[in-house]
Amino acid sequence: MPGFKVAIDGPAGSGKSTISKKIAEKLNLTHIDTGAMYRAITYLALEKGINLDDESEYEFVSKVKIEYKNEKIYANGIDVTTKIRDDKVTKNVSKVSSFPYVRRTLVSIQQEAAKNIDVIMDGRDIGTVVLPNADLKIFLTAHVKERAKRRLKDKEVNNVTQDIEQLAKELQERDLKDSTRKESPLVVATDAIVIDTTNFTIEDTIERITNEILKRRITMEELQMKDVKFQTLKVRDKVEGTVFKVEDNVIYLTLENFEEGRMFVEFYGKNITSFKDVVKEGDKVTAIITKMNDEPSYILLSRLPLLKDESFKVIEDAYKDNKTIETKITKVDEKGLHLKYEGFDIFLPYGLLDRELVESKDTLKGQTLEVHLIEVKNGKRPRLIASRKQIFEARRQQELEERQNARKEEIDQINTGDVLKGTIERIEPHAATVRFNHVAGLLRISQIQHRRIEDINEVIKLGDEIEVKVIKKEGMRLDLSHKALLPTPFEAFSEEHKKGSAVKGAVVQKLPFGLIIELEEGVRGLLHQSEYSWNPNDNFANFVKIGDVVESAVLLVDVKKKKISLSRKALFDNPWKNVSFKRGENVEVKVIEIITDKGMNVEAKGVVGFIPVSELSTERVNKIEDLFAVGDTMQARVIDVNPKEWYLKLSVKQIAEDSLRSEYEQYLTHDEEATTTIGDLFENLLTEKDKK
Ligand SMILES: Nc1ncnc2c1ncn2[C@@H]1O[C@H](COP(=O)(O)OP(=O)(O)OP(=O)(O)O)[C@@H](O)[C@H]1O
Ligand SMILES: Nc1ccn([C@H]2C[C@H](O)[C@@H](COP(=O)(O)O)O2)c(=O)n1
């Protein structure tokens, strides 16, 4: 069986020998570089010094022995591998190779060498002349500038510098000569695959050609074994291919039958604009054949017809695996949200949507939303129902746990007795809730102020900042007090009222030993009976009533025992403090009150004394007012006195009697000289009295 033949043709520097060599190694083919043969002949011709322009001088060619051994080329046993690359050789090789004699001789040598072996042969006329029946013909090409660049690199490696423009010019000249010569010019064989390597790497090109070789090398048995529909592939068939090259807007695939498939980016679907980062070499892609291209031979592919099924599969998988999918909200209607995912419409009823989202549903259109699928039914009109329940319940649970943790952390930091600042969060008739951070406490109405509060709303408002003391901590519960931070009424009272200061208050209770006076709300003091008045005879219990306002002085405030002692008498001077009376002493008195039939209260030395009716006159008094009036002053005699009891008893009568007696005694003394009778004497006395 003849061997497998690959013909590689192309202009200078397109990569023929490099690629051929590597493919030969890879696929175990013999590589024959025919250009090297023409170069070897050129080298020998130069060596021989023949006239290069004279074809008749090339007879030596038929006798030349050319061999390839270990990557080296030998001409007549001499290693010419390097020499044939000299500039001199390169400049003349086109000319030498244009002679029909030279060509025919070398072509027959080449054909002989390729007989019965698997060979990859590169040159200019391989596909057209040397191996016209080659199993695969490749015409490699590249832009002249790219080829010049590659050559320049080769030269730089060998420390040879050359102007790139000059190099390009030389290549163009050689191309022209090679393709315009009469004998076997460089042309593209009609059945060759043209590969432009301008933008291909060496590896790309190798892979591309390797695929072509493999496609053609495969035996019928192998094809059957692999169940490859080699002959039957047609438009609309579904095929799978392996990506061997990725460009921005096209991917190249090797299909099941080893043909080349190409897919342009717009036929991939999923709205991508570039294959980069989406598809990589080695990926398997399933697609539909949309066109079979003959020249060059490849198959155009598209994924678009498959996408619907693929997308539905994605949806079914998401449903089965209970996966979250990210959808787009396309419509908001009365019953729920319409979502789009992988090109399918999904409905999400409001009952399965987060409450906050339902509240702001009118702003949702166009937004993305993560959901779970809870019903997936395929059909002409697939039925797809989504839900957010799992998502929002999980979120709520997580938030709850976070809150609980935060509360626990905060409460662990709080101790009974701590003073904290918080905000009034809720007000009930008998208590308020005070929020700190994650924790709140209870402030009962009785703990807000020391005084009684009728309406809690009068003293606190929602949002008020308040300082409180923790008075009890039980688990997560905190009992708070604001009043614990305020001075007690007793403390406030003691601050404002120092000892001795005068205070007024209403009598709230009468006790056997005194009066309870309310001085301020919650502040009561005792006015002991001994402190009511200096007057020992003052029986205030008889006339002081509950509710009477009494003024008194603060004697003592005991904040701890909550005791206040008051003294009313301290507000006054004790009238008896600095006076003294002696019995028998005559004092000036002033009538301050007439007590009918009983006597008169008089003021003497600033204190009150009493003159009984019997002591008002030496004669019987029928009506006191006939003799005295309030405001009258006169002399009276102290007849009894007890300062402790504020007791002072006086007599006018005794002074009058004294006076009568003295007059009488005078009379007795005068009588020895005068003739006044007792009757005269009394008449005179009475006349005096009338005058008054
Ligand atoms: N994509 C590519 N394909 C092939 N060769 C490339 C590529 N990119 C760079 N090169 C380099 O280009 C240079 C020219 O390659 P090569 O000598 O194989 O070309 P050629 O077609 O055999 O040229 P000539 O006909 O003049 O012998 C080599 O150094 C090779 O490594
Ligand atoms: N089959 C061939 C091979 C080569 N030549 C000529 C044309 C080239 O200018 C020259 C050197 O070839 P290279 O080594 O550059 O590939 O040989 C030809 O005519 N036919």
Give your account of this protein's structure:
- InterPro entries: AAA+_ATPase, Cytidylate_kin, Cytidylate_kinase_dom, Guanylate_kin-like_dom, NA-bd_OB-fold, P-loop_NTPase, Ribos_protein_bS1-like, Ribosomal_protein_S1-like.
- The protein has 6 domains: 5-220, P-loop containing nucleotide triphosphate hydrolases (Rossmann fold), CATH 3.40.50.300; 238-302, Nucleic acid-binding proteins (OB fold (Dihydrolipoamide Acetyltransferase, E2P), Beta Barrel), CATH 2.40.50; 308-393, Nucleic acid-binding proteins (OB fold (Dihydrolipoamide Acetyltransferase, E2P)), CATH 2.40.50.140; 414-485, Nucleic acid-binding proteins (OB fold (Dihydrolipoamide Acetyltransferase, E2P), Beta Barrel), CATH 2.40.50.140; 489-571, Nucleic acid-binding proteins (OB fold (Dihydrolipoamide Acetyltransferase, E2P)); 581-692, OB fold (Dihydrolipoamide Acetyltransferase, E2P) (Beta Barrel).
- It is built from 16 helices and 33 strands.
- The N and C termini lie far apart (185 Å).
- The protein is an alpha+beta fold and 692 residues long.
- 29% of the residues lie in helices and 31% in strands.
- Strands 2-6-1-7-8 form a 5-stranded parallel beta sheet, sandwiched between helices.
- A hairpin with a 2-residue loop joins β15 (336-341) and β16.
- The structure holds adenosine-5'-triphosphate and the ligand Nc1ccn([C@H]2C[C@H](O)[C@@H](COP(=O)(O)O)O2)c(=O)n1.
- The site of ligand LCLUPRNS has 15 residues, from α2, α3 and α7.
Concise summary:
Helices cover 29% and strands 31% of the residues.
